[in-house]
Amino acid sequence: MNTKKTKRNSRLSALIAVIGIIMSLSACGDNRVYDHYEHATVGGWEKNDALAFDLPALEESGRYTLSLGIRTNDAYPFQNLSLVVEQTSFPSKKTAVDVVNCDIANHNGRMLGNGITLYQYSIPIRKKFHMRGDSLHITVRHNMKREILPGIVDIGIKMDRE
């Protein structure tokens, strides 16, 4: 009887050790350099209200991928969302402007993002080579005909090292 408990305990300990190793290895694979969201105005995101993100200087040169994160709720009245993303790289002061068009809902009005009452979208913006010490200033504003846009909760920027 005692032997069975000992074997069961050693198997359980081995299983816990394996799970711990797998979890620690998967945590090391995170290549995220930056991930931050800014809140849009509660009453509606105004067209001239740009959300700004300042990404710190990079520790390593390499290829990086920028993604745009969007969180909406059921108050968003359109199927699509058009955003202007302006990136200024420092110290070179080079600027790139992208217009990003996002599908938010299907033709029946069903939200396409992940979630139940708050919907999450992730849209790749660009892949780019950056040098060590480069930093980025990014602004995002909406490019819709409506001046005040309801239903946009948060806008975010994520940068991953490839």
CATH topology (fold) name of the largest domain: Jelly Rolls
Helical residues, percent: 10-25%
End-to-end Cα distance: 53 Å
**Strand percent estimate:** over 45%
Uncertain stretches of 5 or more adjacent residues: 20-27
Number of helices: 1
Shape by Cα distribution: flat
Average pLDDT across residues?
86
Structural class: alpha+beta
CATH class group of the largest domain: Mainly Beta
Q: Going across the major beta sheet, what is the strand order?
A: 1-10-4-7
Give a short account of the largest sheet.
4 strands, antiparallel
Rounded radius of gyration (Å): 22 Å
CATH architecture of the largest domain: Sandwich
What's the order of the H and E elements? HEEEEEEEEEE
Provide the number of structural domains. 2
User: What is the number of beta strands?
Assistant: 10
Keywords: Lipoprotein
Protein name: Gliding motility lipoprotein GldH
Could you explain the architecture of this structure?
- The chain has 162 residues and is α+β, with helices and mostly antiparallel strands.
- The chain folds into two domains: 30 residues; 130 residues, Jelly Rolls, CATH 2.60.120.
- Helices cover 17% and strands 50% of the residues.
- The protein is built from one helix and ten strands.
- The strands form three sheets. It has a four-stranded antiparallel sheet with strand order 1-10-4-7, with no helix packed on it. Strands 3-8-5-6 form a four-stranded antiparallel sheet, with no helix packed on it. It has a two-stranded antiparallel ribbon with strand order 2-9.
- Strand 5 and strand 6 form a beta hairpin.
- The radius of gyration is 22 Å and the shape is flat.
- The N and C termini lie far apart (53 Å).
- About 5% of the residues have low confidence.
